[in-house]
Amino acid sequence: xxxxxxxxxxxxxxxxxxxxxxxxxxxxxxxxxxxxxxxxxxxxxxxxxxxxxxxxxxxxxxxxxxxxxxxxxxxxxxxxxxxxxxxxxxxxxxxxxxxxxxxxxxxxxxxxxxxxxxxxxxxxxxxxxxxxxxxxxxxxxxxxxxxxxxxxxxxxxxxxxxxxxxxxxxxxxxxxxxxxxxxxxxxxxxxxxxxxxxxxxxxxxxxxxxxxxxxxxxxxxxxxxxxxxxxxxxxxxxxxxxxxxxxxxxxxxxxxxxxxxxxxxxxx
Length: 268
Ligand SMILES: NC(=O)c1ccc[n+]([C@@H]2O[C@H](COP(=O)([O-])OP(=O)(O)OC[C@H]3O[C@@H](n4cnc5c(N)ncnc54)[C@H](O)[C@@H]3O)[C@@H](O)[C@H]2O)c1
Hints:
By secondary structure, the chain is of the alpha/beta class. It is 49% helix and 16% strand. Helix 2 (46-60) links the parallel strand 2 (38-43) and strand 3. Nicotinamide-adenine-dinucleotide is lined by residues 11-12, 14-18, 43-45, 70-73, 98-101, 113, 117, 144, 146, 191, 193-194, 196-198. It comes from Holotrichia oblita (Chafer beetle). This is 15-hydroxyprostaglandin dehydrogenase [nad(+)].
């Protein structure tokens, strides 16, 4: 995949992994001597979103990054991110469904953002915007799952359920021949601990703080760079294995090997 001339939307791109993905898309364009046409940061946090867009525009060129205040749990708001992107850049080719949070106390919001938000974005991209506005014959959805999307985690069962659901959504879209016929590829990323503000509020919203503290002692030994997750997004797009999931730990990127149904079934 050539990243030149492409337009991307990154949800939750005001900071953390989303910003790392936006930055890596812009940086990768420069590396291959051409530029990504534009990136929209679609985030609820307008103070941080505007500041990050300004920072990236200063680094990569004044109209490369657009900020659109967006709540991914609201279809109209998500549509507004798509239409503002098309107004600004004419096309849309990549959707990074990154906005996500862990809140085991107010657990419904985790389901709303991590699952409903990803589903709203995917349906808008697949059914409405990619068919009409992709610049070439291919378009990509990258869904942020987690290590908690492929293994259970005792301290955050609801978060884990949403991230497993994102894997189910990605793998099922990956199998769907209607999407492949339209040139739409859907992949998931499963990062292990990454250096973002998320780690600062996870304990506050944990329901089992003792289990959280035990887990944190293990996963806090190393927090990887957010741009490594951006590199994984690019790797997944280059690989074009629709339905694939990519595990990222200690700055290394691995394709996940899912067991077959036969391998999953235990003894009678
Ligand atoms: N940080 C990690 O270790 C880690 C590991 C695995 C997976 N992830 C996943 O990566 C993604 C990004 O996480 P992060 O660590 O960068 O978190 P973060 O808290 O730093 O960033 C999340 C961003 O999402 C935005 N957001 C929240 N609700 C939103 C909504 N309704 N609409 C639009 N934007 C919204 C926030 O404003 C924030 O800018 C999440 O899906 C998270 O579950 C993170």
